[in-house]
Specification:
The chain is an alpha/beta fold and 259 residues long. The protein is built from eleven helices and 15 strands.
Length: 259
């Protein structure tokens, strides 16, 4: 690859992702670390990107780009259930297989993918905590788990309980593994539509020994209204098989991607 082509590729990646690392560029372009660093220095001197420790960042406003990609309307629970059904089923099976020890305390958040997980949980001796009414109802039908439903302000859009009462309750619970759904993944930012749900999800993830996200590939490289967590703190991110190799390579810099 010619130098000009290589540098154009670097700028294209920088424009798409906002922030890129030397390691990521090296994996995509298959060139030496030294060559990439020289390219980044030249592009920085020409003010085509901003050189940062371990990589580069585009110069134009990241916040403007983030806001331009935000969804302005939140879909209803029933509308979400009709989207990407095969992908969600795939994710649910793999995420549920991660619940593999008896007597663990598991948190299951709100969301249609997590609702599907309830069909595939194998251990029978579990303590399961949720703030999702649909998840609670599905698990109660199985009649084989110790179930805790976190109460609070009810959000009809997602079937979740949120707010100060819910936040106080989850702060006092020790969680072995937590599974949380997302609306967007952009760089290291994890986002959703609701500040109240995001606040509770952050508390849950902070309290969990093992922190897991579930997200179909459609939600990668996009943002929603409220950034509630840092992807670098996540232990495992479950997604579907349609995620491109390029996006997987980029995001697995920050966490383990499980397809």
């Amino acid at each position: 690859m010619l130098k000009t082509e290589r540098q154009q590729s670097i700028l294209a990646m920088c424009d798409r992702y906002g922030t890129i690392t030397v390691k990521f560029i090296q994996e995509v372009l298959a060139v030496s670390d030294m060559t990439i660093r020289r390219d980044l220095e030249e592009l920085s001197q020409r003010k085509q990107l901003l050189r940062i420790h371990g990589g580069a960042q585009r110069i134009n406003s990241l916040e403007e780009d983030r806001l331009s990609s935000i969804e302005t309307n939140e879909l209803s629970h029933n509308e979400k259930k009709k989207l990407h059904t095969e992908e969600k089923e795939y994710i649910a099976k793999h995420a549920a297989a991660y619940i593999n020890k008896e007597d663990d305390t598991i948190f299951l958040g709100s969301g249609t993918t997590i609702e599907l997980m309830t069909q595939y949980i194998e251990p029978s001796s579990l303590r399961i905590v949720t703030n999702s009414l649909p998840v609670f109802n599905l698990l109660s039908e199985a009649n084989r788990f110790e179930l805790y439903l976190i109460g609070g302000l009810y959000r009809e859009k997602t079937g979740a309980f949120v707010g100060s009462i819910a936040n106080e309750a989850v702060q006092k619970i020790g969680i072995k593994k937590a599974f949380v759904g997302v609306n967007g993944l952009k760089g290291t930012e994890v986002s959703n539509f609701s500040i109240e749900e995001g606040t509770l999800q952050k508390i849950v993830l902070d309290n969990a020994a093992v922190k897991c996200l579930v997200s179909d590939a459609n939600k990668f490289d996009r943002s929603d209204f409220y950034n509630f967590y840092d992807l670098r703190k996540i232990d495992a991110l479950f997604t579907d098989a349609t995620l491109s190799a390029e996006l997987k390579s980029y995001y697995q810099q920050y966490t383990e991607i499980i397809q």
